[in-house]
Specification:
12 helices, binds alpha-D-ribofuranose, binds calcium ion, ten-stranded mixed sheet, alpha/beta, globular, 298 residues
């Protein structure tokens, strides 16, 4: 059972929102959530972090992170996540007491040791490592949703999170920190069919149901509709898969090696190194955890 405080860096994003819901339902020890530009622009992702933190009763400290990448053109993905990043769902507005990105260094030092889960571009983590290289001693592990080896989702054989900020990905992946990468190769194995969604959270959307499960189901179905329209096999909850991998590494198989990224963020794996790349998953066990979150865990 993971005990250390956790810092989640995220660009909500429909699958990020489901990931935060899963983190709450499965009692991840979330100390701080850092927003980063990615799926939509930084003001939307930050508002979503603030409002999800309140709506899901995560009650984490919030840091407003980067609204542009260290490198790259900073493209967004409204066509996947909607204009506001969470499928047009309007959450109750929470008070924004966020600190600025300089707070991330102080948080890492104050916590002593913490686990980091990144669900968006690696801009914030790269920034703090570049400004304060010694802080890597305070990062026990990084679990990063990102990369794709046989699968890509943006041009030039790249994946969105690493491709949004290739320089940041390179800084983090070459840091020597204990990193687990949860790439598209495994998150695409956790697609959710209409029948599985029916079993997890019922298939009919009731927009009047403003409960946590009701709203999270609406966000999940938005993800499903967009995913199947893009000819994916079902809803793709990349980030929730990464959170479940953090909690239940025994559900997943991986190999250790070195991962490099090119100027587009495309990843290359070679043997020998301390980065664990996940390549397989016991899909039914992940789906059981999702069902638990939507039925008992909230
Ligand atoms: O490539 C998928 C990743 O990019 C997910 O984290 C999604 O939310 C987007 O950030
Ligand atoms: Ca994300």
């Amino acid at each position: 059972m993971r005990k250390l405080p956790v810092i989640i860096d995220t660009d909500p994003g429909t699958d990020d929102a489901v990931a935060l819901f899963v983190a709450k339902a499965l009692n991840v020890n979330v100390d701080t959530i850092v927003s980063v530009c990615g799926n939509v622009n930084g003001s939307y992702t930050h508002n979503n972090v603030v409002n999800l933190n309140g709506f899901l009763s995560l009650d984490a400290n919030i840091i407003k992170g980067a609204d542009k990448p260290l490198s790259g053109s900073g493209f967004t993905a409204e066509e996947v996540h909607g204009e506001n990043g969470i499928g047009g769902v309007i959450l109750p507005k929470a008070k924004d007491n966020a600190g600025d990105i300089s707070q991330l260094y102080h948080t890492l030092k104050q916590l002593g040791k913490s686990d980091v889960i990144t669900l968006g571009p690696l801009t914030n983590i790269a920034y703090v490592l570049r400004e304060h290289p010694e802080v890597k001693e305070n990062i026990n592990s990084i679990t990063a949703m990102g990369g794709g080896f046989e699968i890509s989702n943006i041009p030039n054989n790249a994946e969105f999170n690493f491709g949004c900020d290739p320089m940041a990905a390179d800084i983090v992946l070459s840091s020597g920190i204990d990193i687990t990468i949860v790439p598209l190769d495994v998150t695409h194995k956790v697609y959710l069919t209409k029948e599985e969604l029916q079993d997890i959270c019922g298939f009919e959307i009731d927009k009047t149901d403003q409960s946590v499960v009701g709203v999270m189901s609406e966000i999940m179905y938005y993800n499903y509709k967009i995913s199947v329209a893009k000819k994916d096999d079902g809803a793709l909850i990349h980030d929730a898969t990464a959170v479940i991998q953090y909690l239940h590494p025994e559900y997943f198989d991986g190999i250790y090696g070195t991962v490099t990224v090119d100027n587009y963020g495309a990843t290359t794996f070679k043997d020998g190194g301390n980065i664990r790349v996940i390549f397989d998953v016991k899909r039914d066990l992940v789906i059981e955890r999702l069902k638990f979150c939507f039925t008992k865990g909230h």
